[in-house]
Amino acid sequence: MTITLSTSGEQDVTHKQQTELASRLKQLREARGMSQQALAITAGLSVSIVARMEQGVKEDPRLSTLLKLGQALDVGVGDLLMTPRPKRKQKRKGK
């Protein structure tokens, strides 16, 4: 996933990335048993920002917003932006 920062500090995010971020944010929030309101309060954001991001409506989230969400969810920004890939079984050499 490639995300570039603009000079205003905002990110240029494609529609696919925006959809993945929305899904991942909701997944992480629900896994921690948090409501949108609880996440917003913990992150110091408005409930509408959290809701819009989960709906994929909020375009180009600021890096500072992603950092606050990551901190509130106890994950890094990279964890918000990337869906974890399933672990592959490693083949042993010589067998």
Q: Could you characterize what this model shows?
A:
By secondary structure, the chain is mainly alpha-helical. The protein has one domain (14-81): lambda repressor-like DNA-binding domains (434 Repressor (Amino-terminal Domain)), CATH 1.10.260. Helices cover 53% and strands 4% of the residues. The chain is built from 5 helices and 2 strands; from the N terminus they run ββααααα. Helix 2 crosses helix 3 and helix 2 crosses helix 4 (63-73). The radius of gyration is 15 Å and the shape is globular. The termini are far apart. Residues 1-11 have low confidence and may be disordered.
The amount of beta strand, in percent, is under 5%
Give the CA-based shape. globular
- What's the number of helices? 5
CATH fold type: 434 Repressor (Amino-terminal Domain)
SSE arrangement, N to C: EEHHHHH
Q: What distance lies between the first and last C-alpha atoms, to the nearest angstrom?
A: 35 Å
Question: Structural class of the secondary elements?
Answer: mainly alpha
Q: The biggest beta sheet, please? A: 2 strands, antiparallel
Instruction: Specify the CATH homologous superfamily.
Output: lambda repressor-like DNA-binding domains
Strand order of the largest sheet: 1-2
Mean pLDDT: 82
Q: Report the strand count.
A: 2
How many domains make up the coordinates? Answer: 1
Please estimate the helix content.
40-55%
Low-confidence stretches: 1-11
The top-level CATH class is Mainly Alpha
**Architecture, CATH level 2?**
Orthogonal Bundle
